[in-house]
Please model this.
Amino acid sequence: MKQAKEEYLKEMKKNLLGNIRKGKTYLQVGGQGLERLVCELMKCEGYIADLLSKNHFPKPADADIRAMKEDAFSSQKILVQVKHHDGYSGKEGIEQIIAALEQEGYEDYSGYFVTSGEIGEDVERFAEQSDIGLIDGNLLVDLILEHLDRLPEELQDKLGVYLVPNIVSMR
Model:
């Protein structure tokens, strides 16, 4: 039974990631739906997060989300660049977030690059050298499923993923 559950979960993750990458969800097009989803996931992680306007930064700088989390022991400020890709994501999103972090008022922020795509070793190295955190499509789907019960129902509907009560037979 445990193996069947693991296989089901593996297949579900694969299908969800495929649907997101291919645009087979009802998320808003143009990447904005994915940006909103990532923003909601950050809220589930305890951040105060908001979407930034498309012209918030001068080009080539860009970030889609500004988030902050504070407690008695620490303060964390993050800028996030989100890309909706099917296939591999290049360095462009990382370069955009680096440029955003160089803008006045964002010196004490850290940066993240989130993509629905895959990330190659060269891009991983570039991000690591630039001190930019990465979340690829696989990790993104893990976060979605981890927080599914706390995501707004509207987003669950748009993703086509539902929490359904199920009774399992017990001996």
Observations:
- The mean pLDDT is 93.
- The beta strands are 48-51, 65-70, 75-83, 88-89, 110-115, 118-119, 132-135.
- The longest strand covers residues 75-83.
- The radius of gyration is 17 Å.
